[in-house]
Amino acid sequence: MKKSSVYDCTIIDLDRHHSNRKGNLTVVENNKTIPFDVKRTYYLYDVPGGESRGGHAHKELSQLIMAVSGGFTVTLDDGIVKRTFTLNRPYQGLYIVPGIWRILDDFSSGAVCLVLASHGYDEADYIRDYNTFIEYKK
Ligand code: TYD
Questions:
Q1: 59, 115, 121, 123, best to mutate for ligand 1 pocket (most atoms within 8 Å of CB)
Q2: Which of 16, 36, 58, 74 is 20 to 30 Å from the Cα of 8, by its Cα?
Q3: Residues 8, 125, 50, CA angle at the centre, nearest 5°?
Q4: What are the pLDDT digits (tens) for 59-88?
Q5: Positions marked catalytic
């Protein structure tokens, strides 16, 4: 996915099941809601205001990022175009294809960022240096 673009990444509206006076329930299913199998789940929380997370790209990993509580901003960059998304609804996910640099910031207090990932953790899949990323995308 060296040639992937920020336009391959989209907001997915997730299923919302509303129960009168009892709140909402949202579902994500492998290969139905998202075009990959979830192998790993992690979440970011207690991120101090003003801090940014992310700041890397993945060579093979697909992800769905959700603000299950609070909100934050995700900036995607394919080396040519940048797109910024505000995530602050628990029934929306941002689908990110491999080969995209991403930065998360502007966390609200109490924000929880849930990430569903297509692969297990593998440091070799990360590109952590921006110049290396730009070279990789050429
Ligand atoms: P990292 O992906 O660098 O987080 P961020 O880009 O949001 O700052 O991960 C932070 C640390 O957590 C790093 O030492 C690797 C470790 N980590 C795991 O051990 N397993 C995982 O699944 C993830 C995502 C991170």
A1: 121
A2: 16
A3: 75
A4: 999 999 999 999 999 999 999 999 999 999
A5: 56
